Amino acid sequence: MSARTTPTNIFQIDERMLGVDWEDGHRCAYPVRFLRLACTCAGCVHEWTGEKILAENSVPPDVHPLDVETVGRYGVRIHWSDGHSTGIYTFDHLRALCEKAELERKS
C-alpha cells in the first residue's frame, strides 16, 4: 500500500459527509449515502458476477454512519444506520471513490 492510499484521519464532517485525510496531503469529502451505495460486500455486489445487487431505493436518504472502525491496516468497516455493517471499504477503494465523490457533490 502506498502513502497515497493510507489515511491519516477519518472524520465526520457533518451528518451527510464523511472526510478522509490521506498521507499524501489530499483530503476527500464523501457524501455518506454515496459511500453506503458503494459498498462492495457480498450482500451488495454479486460475488461471482460483480453485478450490483443493492437496490438504490432500499437505502434511506438519511442513512448515516453510526461507527467507523479500522480493519487491519487496509480498510474500514462502517456501521450504518440502516443496519448494514458487513462491508469493508479498503483504503484503495476509498481513495478510488474520492474523484467520484467529488463529482457526486457537484451534481
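Above is the first protein from milestone M3; the second protein from the same milestone is given next.
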Amino acid sequence: MPKLIEERLQRLEDQLALQDLLARYSFNADLGRTREYADLFTSDGELDLSEMGLGVFRGRESIHDDFITQPAAAAAAGRTFHHQAPTVFYVDGETATGEGYSSVLYADENGSISCAGATNNLWSFRRVDGEWRISGRKVRVLGSPQAEEIYETSIR
C-alpha cells in the first residue's frame, strides 16, 4: 500500500478510536462505571474542572477517588446523558488534541429533563500500549471569557 494511503488510513483509524474513547467516557460517566471512567485516563492524566468550582484532579487515582466516586457523581449515575460533540481531533503520531463542546442532560426523579451543563473542552490524548487514553481535559463553561482559550490553538 502506498505510504500516503497508509498515512490517511492511520489518521482515520486514530480519529475513529478517539471518537470511541469519548463515547466510552460519556457512557461510563452516565452509568456510574467509576473504575472504567478513570481507566480511560493515563496514569498521570489531568481533569481541569476549576472554572466550574470543582478543582483540578491530577492522576488517574485522584480522578477516581476525588472526583467520579464522590456523592454528587454517584447520585447522578443513571440520570445523566453526556454528549461530546462536535469534537475536532488533531493527531500527531502518539499524541493528539481535541477541541469541542460537551453538554450534559439530567433527568430528575419525575423524569423532567434539564441541561445540567454546556462547556467548551480542550482534550489531550496519548497512545499507551497501542491504545488511546485521555491525558488531559480542560473544561470551560460555555459563554465564559475563559471559553475562548480552548479554541485559540487549532480550530480555524
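Note on the second protein: The helical segments are 3-31, 34-38, 60-68, 71-76.
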